[in-house]
Design brief:
This protein is α/β, with parallel strands linked by helices and about 220 residues long. It is built from six helices and eleven strands. It has one domain: Spore Coat Polysaccharide Biosynthesis Protein SpsA, Chain A, CATH 3.90.550. The strands form three sheets. The chain has a seven-stranded mixed β-sheet, sandwiched between helices. A two-stranded antiparallel sheet has the order 2-3. Helix 2 crosses helix 4 and helix 4 packs across helix 5. The longest helix has 14 residues. Its EC number is 2.7.7.60.
């Protein structure tokens, strides 16, 4: 199944404690976002890859651009960046992926393509508490909870429609699946993700990422 990719690379270094965009931080001598970029490039069914980042950082991505890889200036929110990236998608299907998740695999991409309109997700292992301002309100049943990951794989037309509806009513979702859930009748499928597929956000994540890169993905 042919598809394009929106690879979100407009991260900040604030929570990472870094002075630069965290996707440029290195794991084993290579920028974080390039690992997932290489996985998509290795899939013969992957067409255009749209890097969506900060306008002022376009020059920094210049060396990664090609006939297949293009850069688009993103928006204020992640949701804005996806919507702007969709305007450059040419295929009927699109994967949306966070550039700060470097540990995806071709096997996971194949799983998504086998179940259109789906996301990667993993079971929640911690006990999850719903809280108020100061106190626990209730404990959520862990057996019904999954942690969403990326890539998330949708029909381009469907994703464009729900993004436009969300923009029209001022709805801000936490991921693309949440928009499909809110503004369509399409049921979003679940494809097994991996505990390795973590999003590098905090300094301790970078330490863990270095270990995963060295010990698991060499």
């Amino acid at each position: 199944m042919k598809y394009d990719v929106i690879l979100l690379v407009a991260g900040s270094g604030r929570r990472m404690g870094a002075a630069c965009n965290k996707v440029f931080l290195e794991l084993e001598g290579q920028a974080i976002f390039t690992y997932s970029l290489e996985v998509f490039q290795a899939d013969p069914e992957c067409g255009r890859i749209v890097l969506v980042g900060r306008p002022e950082e376009q020059v920094a991505f210049r060396d990664y651009l090609s006939q297949q890889v293009v850069f688009v200036a993103g928006g204020a929110e992640r949701q804005d960046s996806v919507r702007l990236g969709l305007a450059q998608v040419e295929a009927d299907w699109v994967m949306v992926h966070d550039g700060a998740r470097p540990f995806i695999s071709l096997e996971q991409l194949q799983g998504l393509k086998a179940q259109p309109n789906s996301i990667l997700a993993v079971p929640v292992t911690d006990t999850i508490k719903e809280v108020g301002s100061e106190f626990i309100q209730r404990t959520l049943p862990r057996e019904t909870l999954m942690a969403a990951q990326t890539p998330q794989f949708f029909e381009r037309r469907l994703l464009a429609e729900v993004h436009e509806q969300a923009l029209h009513v001022g709805y801000l979702g936490t991921d693309d699946a949440s928009l499909v859930e809110a503004f369509s009748e399409v049921q979003v499928g679940l494809v097994p993700g991996s505990s390795w597929n973590l999003k590098l956000t905090r300094p301790e994540d970078l330490v863990l990422g270095q270990a995963i890169r060295k010990e698991v993905f060499q």
